[in-house]
Write a structure and sequence with these properties.
Layout: E1 11-18, H1 25-35, E2 39-50, E3 55-60, H2 63-76, E4 79-84, H3 90-101, E5 108-110, H4 127-135, E6 141-142, H5 146-153, H6 160-167, E7 173-176, E8 185-192, E9 197-203, H7 212-225, H8 230-246
Parallel strand pairs: 1-2, 1-4, 4-5, 5-6
Antiparallel strand pairs: 2-3, 7-8, 8-9
């Protein structure tokens, strides 16, 4: 006779926007976290009108709705990590800070979503400044791509090292993704405030991808929720993300969507 003892996987609270194409945003979070054998608790911060080609519009939810969603989860479940995606405006940054400060011991992965893969803006006002000044100091790790790191550091032509030098005065750990450069080998650079640096390289895959940043940050939050040490968790998440891009699908007319769950996931 089968028996279920109802044990739970580690829970990751995700605060992200909804992408109706399913390529990025909260669906990417859920799938990538499931793939780490964790449970995603998705709190929606914004609604978007987008597809694999571009972002057409977005609407940030009222702060009360976001607080209510997150607090309902936090009162009920034992959360092991928090993952941040699209916040959308300055008020949402302050709302998230309120949630994070009440849960200061949880690993916090901040993916500073400022632009969509197709180039469309996903933030209003001086949101990059607010993220840098207020949110990065609370984060365990931030995971910008190089264009995002340049915006956050206010260095339009800066190298990854130059951006890191500025941003590490705010953030404990910083992973600057190299996918937007043109080299055949991608260099993803992990920095910390103690001056350590790790470079993880992988082969560049052909094509452009929708949701790769969400996939990486969510996988990383899952690894940290499982208790994996940070450098190892980054390496595991990068390796997983590369495989999702290698196996990506092309459901629309624009960018490819990472295949975050194996084909036999439901079999």
């Amino acid at each position: 006779m089968s028996h279920n003892n109802y044990t739970s996987r580690p829970i990751v609270l995700c605060l992200s926007g909804h992408d109706p194409s399913g390529g990025a945003g909260i669906q990417a979070d859920i799938e990538a976290i499931l793939a780490q054998n964790c449970h995603a608790a998705p709190t929606i911060t914004a609604l978007t009108v987008q597809n694999t080609v571009d972002v057409i519009d977005f609407k940030v939810l009222d702060r009360e709705w976001v607080l209510a969603q997150a607090n309902a989860v936090l009162k009920d479940m034992s959360v092991s990590a928090i993952k941040l995606g699209m916040l959308g405006n300055m008020e949402m940054v302050d709302t998230i800070i309120e949630i994070v400060k009440e849960n200061p011991n949880l690993p916090l992965v901040c993916d500073p979503v400022l632009r969509a893969g197709g180039g469309g803006a996903l933030g209003k006002g001086d949101i990059a400044y607010a993220i840098r000044e207020k949110l990065l100091p609370l984060a365990t790790i931030a995971t910008p791509n190089l264009p995002e790191a340049r915006i956050l550091a206010e260095l339009p032509e800066g190298s990854a090292d130059e951006c890191a030098e500025k941003l590490l005065s705010y953030c404990k750990h910083l992973l600057i993704k190299g996918g937007h450069e043109s080299d055949p080998i991608i260099s993803n650079r992990l920095y910390n405030q103690q001056g350590e640096r790790h470079i993880f390289t992988c082969e560049r895959l052909p094509g452009n991808f929708h949701g790769s940043g969400c996939t990486l940050a969510s996988a990383l939050s899952g690894r940290l929720a499982l208790g994996e040490e940070l450098v190892s968790a980054v390496e595991t998440a990068l390796s997983y993300t590369w495989r999702t891009l290698r196996d990506a699908e092309s459901p629309g007319h624009g960018q490819y969507i990472p295949r975050r769950l194996p084909l036999d996931f439901c079999s």
